[in-house]
Amino acid sequence: MSEHVVTLHVNGEARTVTADIRSTLLDLLRERLHLTGTKKGCDHGLCGACTVSVDGERVVSCLTLAASIDGCEVLTIEGIGTEADLDPLQAAFVEHDGFQCGYCTSGQISSAHAMLREHARGDLSTVSFGCGRETVCNGPATLSDDEIRERMAGNICRCGAYANIVEAIASLVDGGTA
Predict the structure, then answer these.
(1) Domains in the chain, CATH or no CATH each
(2) What pTM value is reported for the model?
(3) For residue 92, is pLDDT > 80?
(4) What pLDDT, on the 0 to 100 scale, is given for residue 140?
């Protein structure tokens, strides 16, 4: 077994761990750093339950080798908000019942959190690609329900709470906090 020292800035805190070079970010977070909010769903990068942000970009942590992101900033669900101080996105999920069993919720929220930043900086999706970066309103493409569904397509909810998840995210856009 070959080991590698990995230093990550997880939720704003520098963390140094010696890990097997084959260790995924998901396993490092859950087993070594005891941050269990990020879930292991399919372990094949297909369901999105393990979504976190690395340097501001969404990644499926089950397919990301920890050694490959040495020195990076990692944001997990634990860093987005706390029970005592919910992030507006977390509060919207509660208000709009954007979860049922809750297993996928941390990945959904982590993905939506990064997606809102992507949208704000003008990143395109297949829905908005035809419009270009600017719409007639001279701003980012409208974050319609179709746009939200497209951008969140990598996150699966076995319970089928998709309509409520879209409502939760859209409420932030309509409320002007996105």
Answers:
(1) 3-80 (3.10.20.30), 88-174 (1.10.150.120)
(2) 0.89
(3) yes
(4) 59
